[in-house]
Amino acid sequence: MPENTTITWLGHATWRILTPGGVTVMVDPWLASNPRCPEAEHEASADVVLVTHGHGDHVGDAVAVARRGNATTIAQYELAGWLGEQGAPDVIGMNAGGTVAVRGLKVTMTHAFHSSSTPDGAYGGDPVGYVLELESGQRIYIAGDTGVFGDMALIGELYAPVLAILPIGDLYTMGPFQAAHAVRLLGVRHVLGSHWGTFDALTKIKYRRNAAIACKMVTEAVDILHEMMGANGIYDSAPLQRRFRDAHAAAGHINFNMDTQLPLWGQVALGGAYTSPTF
Question: Does pTM top 0.90 for this prediction?
Answer without folding.
Answer: no
